Each structure stands twice: as structure tokens, then as C-alpha cells.
TrEMBL record:
Its cofactor is Mg(2+). It comes from Microvirga aerilata. The keyword Acyltransferase does not apply. Residues 1-365 are annotated as: Uridylyltransferase. PANTHER family: BIFUNCTIONAL URIDYLYLTRANSFERASE/URIDYLYL-REMOVING ENZYME, BIFUNCTIONAL URIDYLYLTRANSFERASE_URIDYLYL-REMOVING ENZYME. This is Bifunctional uridylyltransferase/uridylyl-removing enzyme. Residues 723-805, 834-915 form the ACT domain. Keywords: Hydrolase, Magnesium, Multifunctional enzyme, Nucleotidyltransferase, Repeat, Transferase. Modifies, by uridylylation and deuridylylation, the PII regulatory proteins (GlnB and homologs), in response to the nitrogen status of the cell that GlnD senses through the glutamine level. Under low glutamine levels, catalyzes the conversion of the PII proteins and UTP to PII-UMP and PPi, while under higher glutamine levels, GlnD hydrolyzes PII-UMP to PII and UMP (deuridylylation). Thus, controls uridylylation state and activity of the PII proteins, and plays an important role in the regulation of nitrogen metabolism. One of its GO terms (molecular function) is phosphoric diester hydrolase activity. GO terms for biological process: regulation of nitrogen utilization. Pfam families: ACT, GlnD_UR_UTase, HD. It catalyses: [protein-PII]-L-tyrosine + UTP = [protein-PII]-uridylyl-L-tyrosine + diphosphate; [protein-PII]-uridylyl-L-tyrosine + H2O = [protein-PII]-L-tyrosine + UMP + H(+).
Amino acid sequence: MPLHTPESLLQSLGSQPIGDPAELRARLVPQLKAYLDQGRSEAEGRLRESQNGLACARDLCEAMDRLVRIVHDAVVLHLYPADNPSSGERLAVVATGGYGRGALAPGSDVDLLFLLPYKQTAWSESVVEAMLYVLWDLKLKVGHATRSVEDCLRESKADMTIRTSLLEARFLFGDRELFDNLTKRFDLEIVATSAPEFVDAKLKERDARVAKAGASRYLVEPNVKDGKGGLRDLNTLFWIAKYVYRVREPEELVKAGLFTREELDLFARCEEFLWRVRCHLHFETGRAEERLTFDLQRALAERLGFAARGGLSSVERFMKAYFLIAKDVGDLTAIVCSELEARQTKRRPMLDRMFGRFRRRRGGALVGEDFTIDNNRINVACEEAFERDPVNLIRLFWLADRHNLAIHPDATRLATRSLKLIGQSLRNDPEANGLFLDIITSRNAPEIVLRHMNEAGVLGRFVPDFGRIVAMMQFNMYHHYTVDEHLIRSVGVLTEIETGQFGHEHPLVNRIFPSIRNRRALYVAVFLHDIAKGRPEDHSEAGAVIARKLGPRFGLTDAETDTVAWLIQHHLLMSNTAQSRDLSDPATIKSFAEVVQTMERLKLLLVLTVADIRAVGPGTWTGWKGQLLRNLYQETEVILGGGAVDLARSERVRLAQEQLRAELPDWSEAEFEAYAARHMPAYWLKTDETRRAKQARFLQESDKAGRTVTTAYETDQFRGVTELTVLSPDHPRLLAIVTGACAAAGGNIVDAQIFTTTDGMALDTIVLSRAFDRDEDELRRAERVAKAIERALKGEVRIADLVDGKRPAKERSKAFHVPPEVTIDNSLSSRQTVIEVSGLDRPGLLYDLTTALGKLNLNIASAHIVTFGEKAVDVFYVTDLTGTKVTHAGRQSTVRRALLDVFKGEDTQAHQRRSA
């Protein structure tokens, strides 16, 4: 049947009163629902065609206005007519909150105020109730209040949320005099007398909201509405402006002197873009989704018309555009705060509380005549400061760092408007580069100053290679921030290391830092290590080339430049080696040491690696990673220091056995000799002293109890892991069963060592990442995992079914494409073949891989598991059943093909597992 317009719906109901609320809803709601669906469909079509988000939001708002009006008219006409209304039977229907602003997203709440002259009457109560029932039947999310004018004024004094809602009140229909009375009294009695209070409350509210959504505006899964740089920030700016400057429309802010015309245009561009993203987001999901998650970013990029270009994918280009808008919102925030401070409507802030952590130096005048101290912050003395001497664009930030002064927003604003002054002449100016190098290598707070330079646009103009990665997102689940934010945070972590913070988390780097000779090179390398991200070539190699160009420009010596370039070229080497190689294999250490060559480079690379990992995002650094890095450092230190690298294997085995004998004074000689004979040489060479002693007692207790399948577990809070020891009769699929049981019980394996005794038993050490902070909670989980392993090894459960039951129907990682790769290498170990498998991670992947290796009759000596967000990199040290490497080309091809098949369709794999 043809759809009615809202106006025609009234006519379709007829002229006779219906009387029954249920009958009215039954006749009205289906037609209104059809109208609403059609309106949203048409709005989405116009949005896709015009790509104007604000127009879409206003269209949806206008359609809602008409719908609310027709609901009111139908209720009054057919249910509660007031032919001769009394003075108390007056009602104004008012849009408030977001709806009051005249813009609605597809999934937004509809906030209504039913405004009364006095207390509620039976008539007004009935009308409001009937209207709400219709709106609820339409599945609308309605926020509503029924208040008199006096109620509104009284409650807005006590509640800042109500006050803000009334600030944006918009008359819809009804008694206009009531509404005008409210707005007039609200302006005179509330707004005119409380501007400082309102501003302070709104800024505190913003801080709390941003902290909850994620403190950085460069989080790679931003909240479009509530995140830093999102729509709510723009709303807050306008609320404050309306309250303080007493304006009604954004255009009035130019007349009020708050914004220039260009800045008002920027405000409009930011608002339209954020509304565009938000409307597309709601249409795409069919709900009020505000977070740009990875699985939605690709769809949004397509909806908004972004295509791959310049080495960036379509989704990366879209997210870069988003983050640049978020940065612009931050600039507008600083402008408003500056003007408010000038009007003394808010308390004087510290631009960044982190300044308080550092000693404040005072004394001596600021350099030159172009800068002043304004309200305890550095400001330009005149509008011509940068034109007179463009070096001042760098000197401003240098002075802020040198004197521990926050930068006045007016100075930042002028710097942003003066970016055209930063050209080749300034970039090659020795003084400007000297000041910039001082900032990077400052012992004060370089992270803060570099971030201010970046937000002002100065950093990207002064170092164009840095400008290329500003707001650049890496479309993966590993990196939490944009590339520029990651680099700046890395410098901040480096400062924390140098000042001795977090020593309990990484004691080695804190201990060795004072002995580092190339401090300047280290800071520059950390600042530049990902400078070439987003280019077609390998970013480590390309970054080294950039470093060789920038080093001399910054004023580094040739030796320092070489060091920076080497560090950038190899900045992933230590992390990759520590996490994905067998550190007990001499070939691993020897190969790593051949690249590093000197102790100074080893120290620099360790510190850079720690700073890089810590700056990736919350939770990325773990004690387990720290332990692996320390092990690699200490093993390499022996080689570089000329230690006994080539000590005979037999001698090392003998020393290990002597150490263990000293740890077991209660054992007889016969007992110890029998135990020592159970282990192959590899066991004595690979396990550390503490683990050898624990496992000796574990095996002894198991033998006495007659247990052939048993487990033990313990937590290690410092390393952030839980270790499981598994004893079982050996067979090729043993590790597959163990990994499957761990996956089914929620255990995330990060490392595994597998040893076979001479009497046919397997002694495996499985390392799980920690899931709980409290030991008692973690031990309960470890017990659950251990029991699952024992049941699986005893054949009490079918492990394939357990693993399949844990696979979610839809995973977040499906948003990503990670081409699977299998590398087989016989040069990385003197005794085993090293198989490295990388691809899209998923629950049960490690089980699938180890099952495939078991079917290939390969013995796994150790497994090293690394995940980089959605990407898994699993490395297996294997031999065939005769204990030799896999060298035959045909055999290698079979192995490679079987492992690649693991990444094919889930349904096919599940069928193969069940039929195995």
C-alpha cells in the first residue's frame, strides 16, 4: 500500500474521535513505522550520494519533528481533545539535548521535554503518556521529562546535565509563550550568573569522558561520539561558547571574536565529517554504534569513497582523514580555552600535568625580544614574531622545554597559521636544527614538547618525512596508536627509562642506561624508528636511508648518524629474535651477535626495543617479553665479551649435571645417576638451573606415585606468565593434544619446550600468558588448564570437539587479511629445522598447526608463539622421527603445503579434525 505523509496520516484516521488508546496505536503505529523506515532509507540514499553528514542528520531530525507532531495531534484530536482548555491545560513540546541541536543520527535518542505552566494536570498527564506509548511502539529510544517552568529552573541549578540539556532546547510545537518564558528566565537567572561554574564543570566532564573512552585522540579504534576529538568535544565547545558568549548559532562566534572566519569554516568541516562518519556507522550497523572498530573501518572506508593510494590502503586513508579531523578539533579546543582564560571564566590550567613531574628551572630572561611570559606560559610578544625570524617557530618549543613552561594557545594558534614560513631555508638552518636536536634529546620532557609541535603542525612541516606519517593508522590489532603518536610516546618511554622509572619492570635497561655513550643517537633513533611506515619498501631499510639524510641536518656526527641508521635498520631484530627463536640454541645467539658486533650496539638496541614495545599500547609490554630480552642480552654479552662460547657440549652437560647434583643433597648417588641418564644432552643444554631442580623432584614424585600422566603448575608474577609442566608417554601428537586442551580451557601459550627421556616419556614445559592479577585467581585457572590437559592425554575427552566448541561464530579478526606464509630454514639451528608460520590468528590455530606437524611425523623440540594483534607468528624447531633435519626439497614442499592448508576454510578443517 502507498505510504502516507505524516500530515495525511491524520486524515486517514478520520474525523471521528477514536477514543480507545490501543485502537489508535494499532491504526497509527504501522503507518508511522513505514514512514520512518522510508525516511531513513531515503536519508541513507542521499547520504551515499551527497556525502554530507550534517545534511543527513538534519533531514532525519526534520522527519522526527514531523512524526512527533503528528503523534501529538492524533492523541489530542482522537483521545484527549481540549475544546476549552484551562490555564493549566497548556503544553509545549520541546526538543532537548542532541535532538535540540537539530541533528539526529539514525540511532540517536529522541530527547523531549513536555513543558507545563504549573504542576501536571490529568489532561497533560494523559496526553504525554499516550504520546510516549506510540513512540515506544515505534521502537524509538525516547528520553523524556515532564516539568513546569519552575521545575526546569530549579533542577537546572542543581544538575549540570539538565542545565546543558536546556541550553539546547528547541521549540517544536504547542504553547510558544511557555517556551519563550522558560528560555528568557533560564538566560537571566541561570546562564548570566554562572558562566565560570558551567565552563569548569563541562571541562571536567570532558576530561572524565575522554579518559573513559581513551585518553589519546589517536587511538586506532576511536569513539566518534565520546572520544577525544569526537563530536562531543565539538558539542562541548559550542555549549561553552553559547553559555559564555550568549550566542545561538555558530556563525555568531566570529562576531564575538572567538573564531576567525577560517576557524569557523574549520569547525563546520569537522562537524560535517564527524556527522558523516557517525551516520554511516549507524546505518552500517543498524544500531547506535559509536566506536569505529576494526571490523567496521573497512566498510566505512568503502561507504565514504576512499580508495587505496600512495602505499596506503583505503581504510588507512580513511582513518588518516579521521585523525586529522580529530587533531583539528583539538586545535579548536585550545582556541576556546585560550579565549576563556583571557576572559577569566575558567581556572588557569597547566597545559599538561606531566610538567609537574620534572624540576622547574627558573632564572634568566627568555631569548630575544619575541617572547613573553603570559599567565605563567610562554607567548609571542607580537603577531610578527615568526615572520621576523622563522627560527622562532622552533625556538618557541625549545624555550618551553628549557624553562619548563607551558605554551600559550595564542602562540600555538599563530604558529599553526604561520606554517608557510617553514620551507627549505628553515629546514636547513643550523640554528633551527640545533634547537630541534636539543628538544629531541632533552633531559626534561621531550615527549610533551614534541606532541605540542606535532599538534601545531610545526613538526610535520619541519621534518617532512615525519609529516608523511602524521595521523597514519596501521590497520592491525597490534598497534594502539597512529604512527606519529607511537613515535612520540616512544621518546616519552625512553625518558622514563633514563630517569629510572619502572625499574621493577625492566631492571636491566635501567641499569645499563648510564653506561651508554651514544645518548643523542639513541634518542634520534627512537624518534625516527618508524619514520618510513606506509611506504611500499621495507620500513626498516627505508628508515635507515632517511636517517642518513636527517642525521647531518640535525647536527649529528658521521659516527652518530651511522649508529642511528643501524639502529633503525635493525630495530625489530632483538624483539623478533627473543620472541620467536630458541635462545638456548647456540646458533641463535651466534647469528644475532654477528649482526650486533659491539656491546654498545647491544645496549642501544635493547633500550630501543623496550621503548618501542612499551609505546605500542597498554598491555603490550609483559614481564615475559622482558625476560626473553634479558636472556638474549645476557647470552649475547658472553659472546661479545669473549666468553667461553665454544665450550664443548659434553663439558656444558657435565657442568649442568654437577649444578643439579648440588641442588639435590638428599638424593643418593644411584638415584641421581639413574635420573641423569634419563635425559638427552639437549635437556641439560636448554633448561635453566632452577627449572632442572624443580623438574627432578616432579619426576621423582610422579615415579613414586606411579603416575605416567601428570602435571604441575606455578605462577611467575614478575614475568607475567604461568608455567605448566606436563609428563606423559611420548607420541607425535602429544603437543597437539596439549595445545588443544590449553585452547579449550582458555590458556594462551607463548612458549613451549619439549623433551623426550630415554625411557620414552615426554617432559614438556608450557608457558601461558597470565590472565589474572591475583595469584589465587591465576592458580585456579592454571589448575583448570592442567586438568584439561590430563583428561585429554588420558583419552577421557575428544580434544578436537573441545577446540571446535571454543571457536566463535564470528571473530573480530575477520576484518583483517593476513596472507599466510611458511618459511623452512636449516641454517638457524645446528640440530633442528626451523619452521616459521605466520598468518591470521584465531582460537585453536596453534592446535591446528601442531596437529598438522604431528600428522607429518615431525617431532617438535620447541615452539615459540608470538601474536601481533591479529597476526600470529609461530616458530617450531623440529626433526623427523630419526632425529635429523628436514632437508629433502620434496619433503619440505609437503610440510609447507600442509601448514598452508591450515589457514583454509574453517569448515573443511573441522571435518578433517573429526575424521582424523
